[in-house]
Structure formats: C-alpha cells, structure tokens
Design brief:
2 domains; CRO Repressor; elongated; 180 residues; 4 strands; four-stranded antiparallel beta sheet; 10% strand; 8 helices; alpha+beta
C-alpha cells in the first residue's frame, strides 16, 4: 500500500513530456507578459475586483495549456520551475537592454502639473480624474490647486508632490540599490 502511494506521488512525465511542458509554459509566460503590458500601468497599481477575477481566470485557463493531461507532481514542478527561470531570464534581459526595459516596463508619466490635469497623458494612461483625486487624498492633499505635480509611476501607483514641496531635479536615475 505504501509502495503504491509513493508510486503515485513520485510519478513523472517522460523526457519528451517534460520538454513539452517546459516549452508550452515558456510560450504562455511570454504571451502573458506581453498581454499584461498592453493593458497598461494603471492595472498594476490599481487592482480592482475585475482585475483579480482576470488573474484567477487567466491562471486557470493557462494551467491546462501548460501541463495538459499531466497531473503529476513533477509536471507541476516543471511548469513552476520554468516560470521562475523565465522570469529571472526576462529580468536579466531587461536590465541589460535599457531600450527594451523602457518598452516593456514603461516610464513615469506626468498627469498633473501646477494644479492642472494633463488630459492627453491621463487619457493615454487610462486614468480618470477620480483616480488622481483619490491618490491626492491618500497623500493628504484635498485640492487640485495644491498639487505641484502628480506622476503615474511604472508600477501603477500615483506619486503626488504638494505645491509647497521642494523638488530637486537631477539627471541621475537609480534603478536599484544593492546592500552588501
């Protein structure tokens, strides 16, 4: 009985099945990265219930495409490992190619300047005035006139700088800090 149970737990796909799972998983990963990038930055930082449903349904729909009829533990581990490796490789690719990073990750977008909405940028980013006003309230600012600038960041959040704040301009751009 223990041998039969262990056989079921440790069952695995053959080599070609494992390669097929890895290849399908890699293709689906790239498809989803590109598809989610096309949705825009707002969806990243301002997740609604509809966005959560989309993520859950996407995960369920692509799971069968990645592993097919394979329900083994190792089939799932192959798909998970492939996703982790693809994510690491994609991150390394973005770091080594700044132009590709700008295309895939994007750049911050100024949406309010000196107390005025920048409608073209807001429309292009899919932002409504209500979202910007909500971000202002989160930063303790109640009136649009009190905003020097508001920026839609690449992670989908909105940064707000009050009119009375001192803004330091710099040519330096920091990607990340490493603590060693």
């Amino acid at each position: 009985m223990l041998g039969q149970w262990l056989g079921q737990v440790l069952d695995h796909p053959d080599v070609f099945g494992a390669l097929a799972i890895a290849a399908k998983t890699a293709i689906i990963y790239m498809f989803l990265v590109i598809g989610l990038r096309l949705l825009g930055k707002r969806e990243l930082g301002q997740m609604t219930i509809y966005d959560l449903v989309l993520i859950v349904v996407l995960a369920n729909s692509v799971q069968n495409a990645m592993v097919g009829p394979d329900t083994t533990l190792f089939g799932g581990l192959i798909a998970a490992t492939t996703l982790l490796i693809m994510n690491r490789l994609f991150t390394a690719l973005l770091v080594s190619h700044p132009r590709l990073e700008r295309e895939m990750v994007g750049e911050p977008v100024l949406v309010v300047r000196d107390g005025h909405f920048l409608w073209d940028q807001m429309n292009q980013a899919g932002l409504t005035p209500e979202l910007v006003l909500a971000a202002m309230r989160e930063h303790g600012i109640g009136r649009l006139e009190d905003v020097r600038m508001a920026v839609l960041e690449v992670d989908g959040t909105i940064s707000v700088v009050p009119r009375e704040a001192i803004v330091h301009r710099s040519r330096r751009h920091f990607r990340a800090f490493r603590i060693q």
